Amino acid sequence: MRTVTATELARNFRAMLDSVEHRHEELIVVRNNHAVARIVPGQAAMTALEAMADLYRTLPPDASAGWLADSRRTDATLDGEVRDPWAS
After folding, report:
1. From CA 74, how far away is CA 81, in angstroms rounded?
2. pLDDT per residue over 35-59, tens digit each?
3. Which of 9, 22, 37, 64 has the fewest Cβ atoms nearer than 10 Å?
């Protein structure tokens, strides 16, 4: 955590935001010798594919083995045809 004055932040705003974004650095902004703000990195974004790729690690060992086998078996049974669910 780095402490910066409000003046320093104003003069180097872009560089300060870059350090927060790229180095995941937190900034404490001080004005008149007391902290007035804290700038923290935003939450990391994750794609759906990345989220699903990490899913098996959260399962117990026996469940993850079953999940992998089930997903491979299901993939082999899909015919690739897209059907209209509303067709009668």
Report:
1. 14
2. 999 999 988 787 888 877 777 677 7
3. 22
Do the domain assignments include residue 87?
no
Contact predicate 25/42, CB 8 Å? no
CATH classification of the domain holding 6: 3.40.1620
Count of Cβ atoms closer than 10 Å to residue 46 Cβ = 11
Q: Which amino acid is at 45?
A: A
Q: How many domains does the chain have?
A: 2
29/41 Cα distance (integer angstroms): 14
Residue 39, SS3? strand
Q: Which stretches of the chain are DSSP H helices?
A: 6-11, 13-23, 48-53, 55-58, 61-77
* Domain around 22: 2-39
Whole-angstrom distance, CA of residue 36 vs CA of residue 9: 12
